[in-house]
Amino acid sequence: MWRHIFMVSTMNSSTTDVFDAWWGWPPPVLDPAGPYADNVVVLAWALFAMGVIVTGIVVVALYVAIRGPARWKAKLGGERLVWIGGVAFPGVVLTCLLVWGLWLTSSLTQPMPDGAMRVRVTGYMWWFDVEYLGPDGDVIMRDANELHIPVGQPVVVELQSEDVIHSFWVPNLSGKEDMIPGRTNELVIEADRPGRFGGVCAEYCGGPHALMGFVAVAHEQADWAAWLAGRSMTPPAIAEQDVPGTVPALRPAAAADAADDAAIAANGRTLFMESGCAACHRVAGTEANGIAGPDLTHVGSRLTLGAGILPNNRGTMIGWIGDSQSIKPGNRMPSYDMLSADELTAIAIWLEQQR
Amino acid sequence: MADYRNDIDWLTPALALGVWAAHFSLSWAGSSIFPGQVAARVVGIGLALPALFAMAWLWRRAGAGPMRSVPRLGIAIAATGVVFTVLPALFG
Amino acid sequence: MSDAPRPGTRDVMAGRRSETGFDHALYARFPTQEPRPDGEVEELEKIWDNPRGWGLLTVVNNNYIGFFYVATAFLFFLLAGVLALGMRIQLAAPMQDLLPQDTYNQFFTMHGTVMMFLFAVPMVEAIGVMLLPQMLAARDLPFPRLSAYAFWAYCVGGLCFFASIFVGLAPDGGWFMYPPLTSIAYSPEINTDFWLLGIGFIEISAIAGAIEIIVGVLRTRAPGMTLDRMPMFAWAMLVFAVMIVVAFPSVILGTLLLELERAFNWPFFDPTRGGDPLLWQHLFWFFGHPEVYIIFLPAAGLMSMMVATVARTPLVGYRLNVLALVATGFISFGVWAHHMFATGMPRVSTGYFSAASMAVSLPAGIQVFCWIATLAAGRIRWSTPALFVVGSIVVFVMGGLTGVMVGMVPFDWQAHDSYFIVAHLHYVLLGGMVFPMFAAFYYWNGMTSKNALSERRGKWVFWLMFTGLHITFLPMHLTGFMGMPRRVYTYLPGRGLEWLNLVSTIGAFVLAAGVCLFLYDLVRRFRFTTDEDAGNVYGGGTLEWLPTGMYSTRSIPLVKSREPMWDDPELGDDVAAGRYFLPNSATGLRETLITSPINAEPQYIQLMPGPSAWPVASAVFTAGFFLALTVQAYVFSAVSGVLAVACILRWLWETDRPIEQDHADIGGGITVPIAITGPSSHGWWALNTVMVVMGMIVFMALFSYLYLFGINPEFWIAPPDVLQTAGIVVLLVAAFAAAWLSRRILAAKARGEFPGQGPWLMAVIAAALLCVAGWWDWTGWRGAGLDPSASGQGATVFGLLAFQACSAGIAAIMALYLGYRSGRGLLVAPSSVTLDIVVRFIGYAAVQGLVIALVVRLFPGG
Asked: Domain tally for chain A?
């Protein structure tokens, strides 16, 4: 089931490239996209070189000790080797490494000045809630499983958890930091080029921990401002809501017959409200106000579904709603397999419009 | 005739490592009680002085024995440990 | 101490530098030249003879228990290895359904747990039980029944624990069990309880083994084997056992707290009520990282011994190597939080742990270069152990270097919890423990098997395992850099991870093929024996290669160097001819020679208990107690618990036997006392070790209390009235005094006299005072309005008080047991091991109660 959905959706999708930008090859740990990952890469290569050289020294020393000429063996076969190889040499190397590591740690954790951009990311079993914070700490926009940042600007990520311990890791942008219930950890990330960077939960959090990911998207400054401007936290007044008043009656047959998306979408909206989706999901500007699951106000514009595991298109959306338990076993959303294909399509079309 | 006495001074290196352990745990306690404050560094650096003095005293004490290499290596490791522990307070 | 003259105190000048007053000139009498009377060997054989058939369940001798222990631990290695193969099959391709998510999560949890708790620690302990008495030329370990108990508790409990995977009830929270994932809210099933209780008592059996090893190494060495002449493995096991005693209490406490939180809703780890999830991580890793060295050090000790034999020259830098072991033991307690760099600790704190992580690699480097220098100093003789030894140096160095890498905080932030760590830890553990273990299997096989293992197959085993290891784990470094987190049951396709994972899977099967070939060789060649063994196939120089029977060596040699077998070619014959110490049974009972801790001067003869069904029975009931608790069969659990205690008391009943004979000749005309109490008794050493364990538990609990205060002080309430505190202090001081008085009354009586009802009554009064003080402390806090489920303060305070209540309860049982013995006339002046141990325990419990009451009532003082 899963493989089928995945193959079909990726082949038919214009957003296949999302997945090319994800982690994989080249190794994102060694492919930095910002200053907080950059310096670590230098350290990583230095450590790698150290490892190769020392392993080489040990292997050569072993070879000489076992097969070497007697004169060389005599030089190695005493306590002097222990003092040089086991004390002096590692002492010097480790001191240098330690000072470098401490200096780097310090430079990576310099506190940000007031007024830096802040985003609060909260871990849930098994997805990420993302809240963009205004200058006063108020939430100006809420999203899920996707973090959009402007290029060239450090962003403070406030890490929290609502249930168990998770860990926030975008290897291209920085190291990881844990999301611990009862605490707020702060991690600074910065991208120096636009792009899409894969992220995962790195701390085992039970069940489908393996399928808990997200995408960090870095935009040029102007693009980012435009992106944010299109999304507002403030819900429209009740009078401007798309379908005011009482919920229309269910019209399943009409959905199939209707030619235009608008009618289907209206039907999808009704289904969404009546089938239980609204109990867990919030869609700003509608009566859907659940908080247990990801906020769907902008779901139509997201790159992925199911916390970073599927590209977002109509096919995957239908598959996800109808059979999320096969795609991501154990996740908190039941499979809506009692809905017909047309009903699922209607919901998917309406959700597509929530951009 | 073989000698049946243990001539190695095992106590001195154990004491030196004990000094390292005390310095380490107090430094850590300081950094946990005063997170992100100067006091944490002061504790770590301040305690390093008596710790290193103790090492120097042990080194002189070990110098008297017939088998010096063991206590001296122990002190060397422990002193390296103390110096390593001071580095975060200085540069971290 | 007896009133008989101490052996050898005549020569004052020689005694000046002696440890116990023993005259070293007496050693010149050995080997003795007079012929020994006939029939001594036959008597030894009869005394140490073993029950057969079902009676094997009651054996306590280390030759058997050690072998059972090794075999069981190896079984768990194979079982956990099968789990690993299952996981590798699941990960061979992306999005497979071979192992469903739940099953996979149970598999990796069990793989880690079983490998760490049921394989690695028991295996090194098992090798210790098997080899140490022979290496030290002791007749057996000092507490054979304790070894038997530790083994059976581990075997029964471990197998039941493992069986949970067949019914889908295996723990699934990872071997590190982080709450809140493992708290009742997110793990409501009993899977987690299986882990907590199952591991809880496996830890207890590890501590029992550690006590055995500490006392064994320090007190049962052959005469003349000064600390400076101990085999490296004995040194390693000594450091190992001390580390267990210091480190394991932390995880015992952790498991207790988490179980209390799950069962009674005491919020140790719940941040909404003044707990903190990170407290668990501190407690777990304070055990968890030393644990790595607890596994590595004994294996390093084996390596040091095998390197010397393989290179046919004494170990270069013996003393430096010992120092490296000791230094590792210390520094490894300063690295625990490098598992927590990503938790948002204060920056300077991370620096300290990074610094200690660098420092701890110095002693590891010293050991590696000692081995290389030894190989250079000698001429290697290639054999299967030699291959494994050299291979393990390479693998361990690679793992150690990635360890230095992840010790760097910024790098760890990237590598942490990724497959890079999986690669790192498997290199360390395979190179640092598993390869040395296989080398040891080949090397010491000759001690327990009629046939040597096949050298030809052995080379295949090595090369399969060596290449398999690299094929499996080398790619994982890269998999980690590519962003694959640990503990994932699957991964998404199309990201370049498929090939690397497939390669790892193939490598795992190559590795497994090596292990299978080894099993085949075992089936073909291994035949267990205690006396017709294949012997010293590789030419080792230490005492375990002396000719032995069930009684170990005929006589206990005088040790003049580190490799006595190399330096004295006659030694084997002299020992077998009874020309050294204790060539016969001096008392007609099982016995061993106790020597002094530093210079190993002969001190006294200790009587050893023989086969008994009680240790195995108490082990089965102990396991039953914990497992029934897990499945909430409380009645069955309570019955098992009572039966376990009864069996333990019954087994102890026989171990402190007053016997007529109080001195014995141990050969060469040297006379020593039989059994002894006070600071030179081995029971005193064991009790002290228990006190250190309990003291560490209390210390860690007080740390937890202060830690939670530091995190969430706003939940704290004021302690009860100071007057009440003073009253509790008075009661506890009185308990301590009564315990002390009990011993004085007995000591004041003339030798052999029955002391009346005074001693045991004082002990009972002392225990009763302990109980009253504990009750007052408890109700006092309730009266002050503290509820255990209300806050972190309530949970930790009542946790401490509950521990104190348990201590008082044990003290009461011990005091009543003493009273019963007294009633049966077994308590005679001037001293009794039982009374000594009971009153010392009561005294300790009083001090413990004082510390607990004062710290929590006076600090932070509301």
From this structure: 3
